[in-house]
Every structure is written in structure tokens, then in C-alpha cells.
Amino acid sequence: MFVLVNLKTYPCDPVAVAEAVRDVNESTAARVAVAPQAAHLERVAETGAETWAQHVDPIDYGSNTGHTLAESVAEAGAVGTLVNHSEQRLKLADVDGAVRAAERAGLETVVCANNPAQIGAAAALGPDAVAVEPPELIGTGTPVSQADPDIVEDAVEAAQAVDTDVSVLCGAGISTGEDAVAAGDLGAEGVLLASGVAKADDPTAALEDLVEPL
Ligand SMILES: O=C(CO)COP(=O)(O)O
């Protein structure tokens, strides 16, 4: 199972969390990665943790002030990127452009979506994975895999109807190993989570608990 820890703009120490991600990754069969803010990518990647960007823009080299170029993210050490997170929503054409930019830079892609219908649209754009995250559960500590299992199963069905190669992650409120196991039982191949680790007093302990049954 893929466990991707999104640090958003939480006031945690990104290097300390990355070191925990790196160490826990070595002790589990799960694949554990971390997505820090763009400004922290290089320092995080230097820890040896698998590092993802939270966003790239649908642009190429050139006159794009304030944008995030996929090649720069890759050069900083990221191996993948989220696209269209619920907190960084894009128009469909820009989701497509961002996935193409990420591919151009050799980045793996996870396109986020709010519901199964959007998951179908996201899967049609050919990312490596899609992630269903109901916005109303994000940051609540109420796990999507237990509070709204139908949305996960329907997302898996919607993605597979479009492209059987696209894997499906789920996220929102995931913080324990039990939540992650429940996600796997519903057909998800991974989980996307943030506050359960980024806001934990002891991120290493939180991560160890999360991967323990995986
Ligand atoms: O948005 C999320 C991950 O990208 C989920 O956030 P929480 O794990 O804090 O609910």
C-alpha cells in the first residue's frame, strides 16, 4: 500500500517528518512518501525520503511568474506530484496540462478529486493514480474509509471503468492503521493523509502506528 503524507502548510518541521518517513519506509512493506511545500522540497529530498510535490502548474519554461515548473520540482528531488488537490483546485484543462507537464519532467502523478464522477474524469487524463478526498471530511479526523466507504468503492469502480491501469488512493481523516486497512479492503491501493501525521506530537509514532498492520 502507498502512504503519501501531505504536509500542506502545517507548521511542522518538514525535515524531521521526512526523516520519520524515510525510517518507517525501511521498516514496512508499505511505500511511504512525503509531500512538503515547494520551498522545502530540496531539504526534504536530501533526507533520502521519497519526496513529492504538492502541486505543479500547467506551464513550460518561460514567462510564468509565481508558477511552479515541473522540471524545477524534479530538479529539487521530487519524484512525483499531486495535481488538483481540493485546496489547490484546477480547471479540467489545467489538470490535463499539469499532468502533461509532470510527465514531461518524469514525475509520477496523483490527481485528486472530490467524488467518483470527478475520479472518472481524472482517470481519463491518464495519471498514474487518482485520489478521492471528500472535502467535508478533510482535516476532521473522521476517516473516509470508515465514514463513507461507498465513496471509495464507487471511486475504484469509476476509475477502473475508464482505465484499469490507474490506481486509486483515498484520503480525508485517515490517521490509523485501521483506517488504512479499511481503505485497502474497499479497493484503494493507497492513502493520502495530512493532519494525522503533520499535526501529531510524535510524527514517527503516528506513522509507525499507521503502517503497523500493512
Ligand atoms: O487533504 C488531505 C491529504 O491530501 C487529507 O487531510 P487530512 O488527513 O488532514 O484529513
Automatic annotation (TrEMBL):
Keywords: Cytoplasm, Gluconeogenesis, Glycolysis, Isomerase. Pfam families: TIM (PF00121). Gene3D superfamilies: Aldolase class I. One of its GO terms (cellular component) is cytoplasm. The keyword Isomerase applies. Its EC number is 5.3.1.1. Substrate binds at N6, L7, K8, I138, G173, A194, S195. Its main location: cytoplasm. InterPro entries: Aldolase_TIM, TIM_sf, Triosephosphate_isomerase, Triosephosphate_isomerase_arc, Triosephosphate_isomerase_AS. It comes from the Archaea. It catalyses: D-glyceraldehyde 3-phosphate = dihydroxyacetone phosphate. It is found in: Cytoplasm. GO terms for molecular function: triose-phosphate isomerase activity. GO terms for biological process: gluconeogenesis; glycolytic process. Pathway: Carbohydrate biosynthesis; gluconeogenesis; Carbohydrate degradation; glycolysis; D-glyceraldehyde 3-phosphate from glycerone phosphate: step 1/1. The active site is at H85, E133. Belongs to the triosephosphate isomerase family. Involved in the gluconeogenesis. Catalyzes stereospecifically the conversion of dihydroxyacetone phosphate (DHAP) to D-glyceraldehyde-3-phosphate (G3P). HAMAP family: TIM_A. Homotetramer; dimer of dimers. This is Triosephosphate isomerase. It comes from Natronorubrum thiooxidans. The gene is tpiA.
